[in-house]
Amino acid sequence: MSSVKLHIDDVSLSFGGIKALQHISFDVREGEIVSVIGPNGAGKTSLINSINGFYKPQSGRILFGGRDITKLPPYKRAQLGISRTFQNIALYTNMTALDNLMAARHLHMKSNMLTGALFIGPAQREEIEHRVIVEEIIEFLEMEAIRKSIVGTLSYGLRKRVELGRALALEPELLLLDEPMAGMNQEEKEDMARFILDIHEQRRTTILLIEHDVGLVMDISNHVVALDFGQKIAEGPPAEISQNEAVIRAYLGQENG
Amino acid sequence: MSSNIRPSGVFDTTYSDDIALNRTRGEKAVSYGIVALLLLIPLLSLEGPFGISLVPQSLVGTIIRIAILVISVQGLNILTGYTGQVSLGHAAFMAVGAYSGAYLARQFGFSFWLALPTSALFTGVIGLLFGLPSLRVKGFYLSMATLAAQFIIPWTLRYPLEHISNGSRPLDVPVPDLFGINFGADGAMYYIVIPLAMALSLAARNISRTRTGRAMISIRDNDLAAELLGINVFSYKLQAFFVSAVYAGIAGCLMAFHTNNISLEFFAPQVSIELLAMLIIGGAGFPLGPMFGVAFVILLTQNVIPALVPSLYSALPSLLPFLAPVNVFAALNPLLFGLALMIFLIVEPRGLAYRWEILKISWKIRPFSY
Ligand SMILES: Nc1ncnc2c1ncn2[C@@H]1O[C@H](COP(=O)(O)OP(=O)(O)O)[C@@H](O)[C@H]1O
Ligand SMILES: [Mg+2]
Question: Looking at ligand 1, which residue's alpha carbon is closest to its atom 9?
């Protein structure tokens, strides 16, 4: 069995009286797609925010590749290879799709204010080198036609795709996807699912996926964690989770209420 | 913005063509043409080598003043336009450059060539210090912190450092000895200031389109998402404060050596506001914004408004009979400037440079303008 990439160890997080996460523990193994499901307000986004450092859990530890990252600021976690997308998209809307992806090459680039100011020489070479890499991602996600469009002018589905591209441009070891298919039509959803599977296959990226659409999750994940009211109510292979009483109750409860 | 539109038939075959600043022959010709024209101007004035006065001598001085302000506003553009940190203390940093340059020349006999970089770096460090609050505060509160610089720096110069600044009285700055020749006239200064303004504008443009600039723009557009890309937000804010102050310092120092006589009034709070107004009118976050903004505001305040004031003044008694015209006279200038600024913000909040980009695009896709 492959090694543990992400180890969530007894993590609790609350906002005043709201217990967003209560004693959550689970592992994500190298090369897996692990999905976190649960009704609205279950704590899924809070979990991703804790992993990438936007939220600081009050207790518990988070280990990434064996290293304790619980206290690291977000940009240091990004440097270690954690990248994410947002439920409500957080792109640079005034930049082109291309520049959004180029901005995400930050960690892999070296030029500084001085070499950048000169441009000719190292900075220019670097721009071209990384442009080639970014163009590969653009091709991979079939974004050629929108490469130089200002992101703010793109449709919701395309913006989600650009955001995925930006997350990929970091060449992450762990990719956190917060409801990448929310608000999409069926065709866009299928495209997105295909991209996620391709990323997993071709780049061997470990993926933690949050998704509302349980059917879709069951198709593409190796392992599923179910949350409800900040608690882990079930964990296991997809086939098992889809039969799980507590999970069915959580979802039915939501639909009835 | 304009980078995605090209005249039909022009295709980039390599990425280096695609990222070039001048992408067509026409663009290249226009850029070089402007540079050549600017460099020719003093030669065609009465004090030039040919002794012809095709160009009025006063124009040379005006262009120098514009170029110095362009340098300063380029710095403000990096901090405010690209990084999104609104500074209300930019004039104070110009004061640091001006007075440290003057001090080095007066006290230690530094040549202009040595005083310029030294005072620029010193100003950068002072800018860095006033950027430290950006670790904790942002937006409106950070602007307040920069406003503090606008009060602390001139106060420090006026009182504790009176022996350096000459307090509230003007301070003489030695006439620079350039190229071994003592130039008092505008001519030599022109050939220092103009190429420097061009080089620094180009440097700012290059910063904005490479790694550092993209990090800064990321911070402006969404600082949380910037962290997520591994960008150390605080470090880049500090870098922006530093380089913006370096630009202000260079501008201030040039001003000192150009006018040979500086006074703290040159760096008053309203100057900071004017610099910000220039940036906004020109287009914050656009490479050409500082040029457009400075040229427009200078034209407005030195030519258009003075031309309007007398007729407005004589029309006042009939327009607003309850006002004593004498009381209003002094206020007419700032009033008209404020009015122009307001109209501008309503009509084109993104600035002249934005308008220019739109125009360029519609020119390139002619004759199909849909
Ligand atoms: N920044 C915050 N401040 C206060 N409460 C929050 C914050 N973020 C999340 N919560 C609360 O935590 C709970 C879990 O929210 P969230 O993690 O967004 O759930 P999900 O993503 O599963 O829909 C909710 O009750 C939500 O209101
Ligand atoms: Mg959520």
Answer: A46
